[in-house]
Amino acid sequence: MTVASPRSNANPGPQVKAWRSILSAFCASLIGIGLARFGYTPILPAIIDAHWFSSSAAAYLGAANLAGYLIGALAGRPMAARLSVVATLRWMMLLATISFFACAYPVHFAWYFVWRFASGMAGGVLMVLAAPTVLPHIPASRRGLAGGVIFMGVGAGVAASGTLVPLLLAQGLRQTWWGLGALSLVLTMVAWRGWPGDKVPVPEAHNTHRAAPKSSRLRALYAEYALNAAGWVPHMIFLVDYVAHGLGEGIQVGAQYWVLFGLGATFGPVLAGHLADRAGFAAALRLAFLVEAAAVAIPAFGLGTGWLIVSSVVVGAFVTGTVPLVLGRIGELLPHHPVQQKRAWSMATVGFALCQAAAAYALSFVFGASGNDYRLLFVIGTVAMLLALAIDLVAAVTAKSPDASDSRVRKAVSMSHAASSKSARRQAP
């Protein structure tokens, strides 16, 4: 497909290229997370019913995707250093696409495990690289909205998993994987030429020598993001089962709540990004923690259908909406250190993946040990969200009161400057 070049006298080139890059990152999020991860959830019962694999084996295949995601988050930056960022992004989108077609053929458990692992790894690499590659090329005043659009791809994949996949399953299980592969291939081709170059824009000269912030503030952000991952697990894993079995509403009604969750996940990043552009990422993130805690707690109180709908939509919105907020907050903490921003986002993604996997196993154990007490799971999720908010508030207060070592350093530097000034005056003619 040929795209007409913009007229030189109108000079829309940078803006057009910026939104073209955003579209590419949106496609990467949709493929790597929205389809490769969340697309498997509604397909899982069909795989078991078709006797492709047993229930336990199918669960291990789901875990293979999570393990691959963790490896991808760790390997993304080293791969980009060897191949270039753009080449890595293209190859990972292709790898995810090939995995969909490969999963249409249940040759052997090992075959399926490898391809589910590969799809997870592709998703981890795309999550680590896609947005940080694009956002430095976006004006600072629009990065919140741009990040929201990028991660809206995750929500679009969640929504597709609740709507498109059931339609494809009516045609057959193999045809469902073919359909996902075809959609992924189209998105890959749309994104192929839209990526910006590997070269990151250089900040203004008078800002290049600013020091990086204390690592304690970044560590606090890592902990907050990881706790969010744990707080989302009750909804991400147990919501449908809670509605279907805990409330006795049946699987069809439970699936409807998953669609609501997906709709929230679709629009959440854009709304969160717009809020961040107006209020700043730090303030938006604190508000997100507070609202999330309330929304996660709702099912524990059994307040009825209306409130459960609100809970599903709001938590879904922040599952994807918190991602651009955390990425933008890293940009605020490291405003003139693009390389450190990418490293920090990689660390945050790894911590997220580890904590989410650990929380999934831990809450599954708690669920069984408590006699299938769904409400206890949502209480634990609420506590995780409140703990994230508490860590953020403590980190903010601590940042406003510099410690003694910082004061001594500043005093020593000041005395050094004073001594140099006196020496210069004595030497002056």
Keywords:
Growth Hormone, Chain: A, disordered N terminus, 429 residues, 14 helices, 81% helix, 2 domains, mainly alpha
Describe this structure in words.
With 429 residues, the chain is mostly helical. It has two domains: 21-139 and 153-197, MFS general substrate transporter like domains (Growth Hormone, Chain: A); 213-400, MFS general substrate transporter like domains (Growth Hormone, Chain: A, Up-down Bundle). Helices cover 81% and strands 0% of the residues. It contains 14 helices and no strands. The chain has helices at residues 13-35, 40-49, 55-83, 85-102, 109-134, 143-169, 173-191, 215-246, 251-279, 281-301, 305-333, 338-369, 374-400, 404-427. Helix 6 (143-169) packs across helix 11 (305-333) and helix 8 (215-246) runs antiparallel to helix 9 (251-279). The termini are far apart. Residues 1-13, 202-212 and 402-414 have low confidence and may be disordered.
